[in-house]
């Protein structure tokens, strides 16, 4: 959610039950302003909160002019001092995929994972148990990246693409209509498109190239991994991800308010197929 | 647009020409029909300034003025013949455009039909007819009373001599002059702009014209800045004409309905008794102070927003008015796929709920009785059949009776509603088997209470039962209070009761002084569970399933045989009531509870917040003498390992093969024939014997 409309956004996203306490809200309002100035971001988004056992991580993301460029992620433990996280890489993802369980809340905490590695000693090949240390910070980076790639949502029409390249915020976006808001096809993944090229020519013919340049949520696997609900007496549409429980996207139809926030434990719901 | 820049002309001219073009058709028709026009037209060039002043009026598009303005343009300057032609083509474009077509159609019909046919044909074949157009528009400069024109034909009209234009030479020149390349370019550009887009009937030309009209109508401060948004709005308005004020917007209908319903929440029941009502209401009510609790939870960063909490409060108030409720509490919110549930935990006043319970029980018992009868009849029929079907030796496991109301898991009644304003629905009591099965499955709630729960092992009930079972589990696991808030009643001195079940009731401690917040956060021993733990059996108090109640003894005579195979069942014991949290089992080396101060910056005013790691979404706060629990979440337990569904039951044994159960195979044709042959032989042999015997007898007789 945009840091500029933080209060309203928190109010609208509160249907999922988790929000921020007043002191955190106040600190965020000030500190995000400073972050925007220091890092020269075009927009700062408050991404959410990952609940740890000892402490929680508050995550913010900074967006540059091109909205789809990789965003810089910052974390903080007290909503005041922010530290930049390194960008996520493939190795990080494979490394952290073995770590399970909750986040501790201490960025320097190290998870120990024993692996069997083949070690060549001269002519002998034997397996040795190697204890690999994985830092929680790496895990944090990787989880945030996965969540962004999987379930960050933006409504159709909020961004538009110019033929010259950069993706811009659409200042004339007036919100989706009520009938559109209930359909999953009106929402896109807020990331580089992956499946767009797989569409048939017939489907592509109906797309508007300036607006439909991202993957829509319609074809997410497993089907039904999004819960679409109307709240506040039909005045707010809320999408909740079932794959990463804790991600809430809200949008007030016919207005410009939209945003998403993740408040959760940072664990993927791998039992989803059983639960639907 | 490719118009040649008109220099001495005021800058509004190009736009004005475009405006003109829109109704040029109309005007031209009027030109045809009004011979008076030429004189007016003649006068206009005397006052080119009028063009500017007349602009706002022009926008209103009254026919007369338009006519005047349009007609004036060709006369502004003879040197602007080039200007004239674009207008001509614009007007052709108008023919194509559906927008004005409807407006112009009657005029077209009134006007000289021939002219427009000619125009159309001219447009369709611009290159061929360019010269024709050229000449026609040259002629347009002339005031003419009679309409019919056919392109490059000469017109034999004495009035043609009037015009100061250079048409003079055209009148005598039958050759078709080459159009200048510039004009050609202009015409091409215009034709391109008039293309209608694929998705709609709107062409860029029309759109630009609309937008410029709008800008000129409204005269905003900084039109360049607003250009983009105006662009979008104009386009949008084209396709979404404003609906009647008499008709409601169909899309917003459900929203308005919901708003009406919520409005009803805010209305006070009973009208205008004024002070009396106020006094009644300020007395003790069963409705808890939701707003206060919401405030504390907000400090912890949990809970619904404040206006939503207020709506919940009003909804609870409505519930209290509708049902005979003794105490009431907002239990929490369970999220579902299509809708969510708001759950209220209530206790009825003494004796009130028995009536409903009995009705429900009678219905179920009646149903069971009928089923039993049906089965018995079926059995009898089968018995009468020739084959005796072996009776199965499998017996269903004994049904563990559910707990009584107000005890154990059924201590409280739960009402749910989807949104404040919707009616509250009561959830049925939970049975032990439902809890046991609920532990084995993991399903999302859809939001509809009568939805079936499709799972393996099959859940005995629908979503209402599953919801109730989860609520029971969550309550038992996560309802905590500060140590000392509740204490055991002094009347129960004995710890040993039936089967060592322990105490199951508690009362508030009037001497509770509150524990300092820091201590609450530091040690989990300062919190206790105040709901009973649910045993693996599914109940809070253990019941030996093999003990027969009186009903069972009446019905099940056959079941006595099963006593022989009885196994000893161990009594299940769970932690007693008011156990501190420090005794809770760890989840994979992880503490089951996390305690924090709500605000580290101001510890003196914070509340202690405890969060459950076992049931994510369960929170409790305590501050001074107040505490509260809430659950907002999906309704599932946290498990570090992945969910493993139960395996299906092993394949049942088949009956051992024996002569009773094996089907006889039919004899094949060969066998039958062989049998037949053997039978015939035997018969033949028998006949021979008989014959022999007869012969013997005969012989005997003969003798």
Automatic annotation (TrEMBL), chain B:
Residue ranges, compositional bias (Basic and acidic residues): 24-34
Annotated spans, Disordered: 1-41, 349-402, 490-509, 548-573, 645-703
Primary subcellular site in the record, as a coarse category: cytoplasm
Keywords assigned: Cell projection, Cilium, Cytoplasm, Cytoskeleton
Ranges annotated as biased composition (Pro residues): 1-13
Record's subcellular location: Cytoplasm, Cytoskeleton, Cilium axoneme
Keyword Transmembrane helix applies: no
GO annotation, biological process: axoneme assembly; cilium movement; manchette disassembly; sperm flagellum assembly
Biased segments, Low complexity type: 14-23, 675-685
Ranges of Acidic residues composition bias in the record: 350-365, 490-499, 550-571, 686-703
InterPro entries in the cross-refs: Radial_spoke (IPR006802)
A cellular-component GO term for this protein: sperm flagellum
Pfam families, alphabetized: Radial_spoke
Protein name: Radial spoke head 6 homolog A
Species of origin: Bos taurus (Bovine)
Taxonomic placement: Eukaryota, Metazoa, Chordata, Craniata, Vertebrata
Gene it is expressed from: RSPH6A
């Amino acid at each position: 959610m945009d840091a500029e409309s933080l209060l309203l956004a928190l109010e609208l996203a509160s249907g999922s039950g988790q929000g921020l306490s007043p002191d955190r809200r106040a600190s965020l309002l000030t500190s995000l302003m400073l972050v925007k100035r220091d890092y020269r971001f075009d927009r700062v988004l408050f991404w959410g909160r990952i609940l740890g056992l000892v402490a929680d991580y508050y995550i913010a993301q900074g967006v540059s002019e091109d909205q789809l460029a990789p965003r810089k992620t910052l974390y903080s433990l007290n909503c005041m001092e922010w530290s930049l996280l390194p960008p996520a890489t493939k190795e990080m993802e494979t490394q952290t995929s073995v770590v399970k369980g909750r986040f501790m809340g201490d960025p320097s905490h190290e998870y120990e994972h024993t692996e069997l590695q083949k070690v060549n000693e001269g002519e002998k090949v034997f397996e040795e148990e190697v204890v690999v240390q994985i830092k929680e910070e790496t895990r944090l980076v990787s989880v945030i990246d996965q969540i962004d790639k999987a379930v960050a949502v933006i409504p159709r029409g909020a961004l538009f693409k110019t033929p010259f390249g950069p993706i811009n915020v659409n200042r004339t976006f007036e919100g989706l209509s009520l009938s559109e808001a209930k359909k999953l096809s009106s929402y896109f993944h807020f990331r580089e498109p992956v499946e767009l090229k797989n569409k048939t020519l017939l489907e592509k013919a109906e797309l508007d190239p300036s607006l439909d340049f991202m993957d829509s949520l319609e074809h997410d696997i497993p089907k039904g991994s999004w819960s679409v609900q109307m709240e506040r007496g039909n005045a707010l549409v809320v999408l909740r991800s079932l794959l990463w429980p804790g991600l809430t996207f809200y949008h007030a139809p016919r207005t410009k308010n939209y945003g998403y926030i993740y408040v959760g434990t940072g664990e993927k719901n791998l039992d989803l197929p059983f639960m639907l | 647009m490719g118009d040649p820049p008109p220099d001495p002309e005021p800058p509004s001219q190009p736009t004005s020409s475009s405006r003109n073009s829109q109704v040029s058709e109309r005007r031209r028709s009027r030109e045809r029909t009004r011979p008076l026009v030429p004189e007016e037209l003649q006068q206009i060039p005397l006052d080119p300034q009028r063009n500017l002043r007349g602009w706002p009026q022009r926008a209103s598009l009254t026919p007369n003025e338009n006519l005047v303005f349009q007609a004036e343009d060709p006369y502004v300057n003879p040197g602007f013949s080039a200007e004239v032609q674009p207008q001509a083509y614009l007007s052709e474009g108008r023919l194509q455009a559906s927008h004005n077509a409807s407006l112009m159609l009657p005029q077209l019909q009134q006007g000289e039909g021939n002219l427009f046919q000619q125009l159309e044909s001219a447009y369709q074949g611009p290159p061929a007819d360019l010269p024709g157009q050229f000449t026609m528009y040259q002629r347009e400069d002339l005031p003419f009373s009679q309409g019919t024109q056919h392109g490059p034909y000469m017109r034999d009209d004495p009035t043609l001599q009037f015009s100061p234009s250079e048409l003079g030479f055209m009148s005598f020149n039958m050759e078709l002059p080459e159009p200048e390349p510039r004009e050609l370019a202009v015409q091409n550009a215009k034709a391109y702009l008039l293309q209608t887009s694929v998705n709609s009937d709107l062409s860029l030309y029309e759109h630009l014209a609309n937008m410029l009209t709008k800008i000129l109508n409204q005269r905003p401060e900084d039109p360049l800045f607003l250009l983009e948004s105006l662009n979008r709005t104009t386009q949008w308005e084209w396709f979404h004409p404003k609906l009647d004020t008499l008709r409601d917007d169909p899309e917003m209908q459900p929203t308005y309905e919901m708003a009406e319903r919520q409005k009803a929440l805010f209305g006070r029941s009973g009208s205008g008794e004024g002070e009396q009502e106020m006094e009644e209401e300020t007395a003790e009510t069963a409705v808890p102070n939701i707003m206060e609790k919401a405030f504390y939870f907000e400090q912890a960063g949990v809970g619904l927003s404040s206006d939503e909490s207020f709506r919940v409060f009003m909804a609870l108030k409505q519930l209290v008015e509708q049902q005979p409720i003794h105490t009431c509490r907002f239990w929490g919110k369970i999220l579902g796929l299509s809708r969510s549930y708001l759950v209220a935990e209530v206790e009825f006043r003494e004796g009130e709920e028995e009536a409903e319970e009995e009705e429900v029980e009678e219905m179920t018992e009646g149903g069971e009785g009928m089923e039993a009868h049906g089965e018995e009849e079926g059995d009898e029929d089968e018995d009468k059949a020739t084959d005796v079907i072996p009776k199965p030796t499998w017996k269903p496991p004994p049904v563990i009776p559910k707990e009584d109301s107000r005890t154990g898991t059924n201590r409280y009644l739960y009402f749910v509603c989807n949104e404040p304003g919707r009616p509250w629905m009561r959830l049925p009591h939970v049975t032990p088997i439902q809890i046991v099965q609920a532990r084995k499955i993991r399903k999302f709630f859809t939001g509809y209470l009568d939805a079936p729960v499709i799972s393996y092992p099959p859940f005995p009930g629908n979503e209402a039962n599953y919801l109730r079972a989860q609520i029971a589990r969550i309550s038992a696991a996560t309802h905590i209070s500060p140590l000392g808030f509740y204490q055991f009643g002094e009347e129960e001195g004995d710890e040993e009761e039936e089967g060592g079940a322990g105490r199951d009731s508690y009362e508030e401690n009037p001497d509770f002084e509150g524990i300092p917040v820091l201590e609450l956060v530091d040690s989990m021993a300062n919190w206790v569970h105040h709901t009973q733990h649910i045993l693996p059996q599914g109940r809070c108090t253990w019941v030996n399933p093999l003990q027969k109640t009186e009903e069972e003894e009446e019905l099940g005579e056959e079941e006595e045989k099963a006593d022989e195979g009885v196994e000893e069942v161990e009594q299940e014991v769970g932690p007693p009531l008011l156990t501190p949290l420090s005794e809770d089992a760890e989840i994979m080396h992880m503490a089951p509870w996390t305690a924090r101060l709500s605000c580290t910056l101001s510890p003196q005013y914070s509340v202690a917040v405890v969060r459950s790691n076992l049931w994510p979404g369960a929170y409790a706060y305590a501050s001074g003498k107040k505490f509260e629990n809430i659950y907002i979440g999906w309704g599932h337990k946290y498990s570090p390992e992945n969910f493993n569904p139960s395996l299906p039951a092993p394949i049942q044994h088949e009956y051992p093969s024996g002569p009773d159960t094996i089907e006889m195979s039919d004899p094949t044709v060969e066998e039958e024939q062989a049998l037949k042959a053997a039978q015939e032989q035997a018969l033949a042999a028998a006949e021979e014997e008989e014959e022999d015997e007869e012969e013997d007898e005969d012989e005997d007789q003969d003798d």
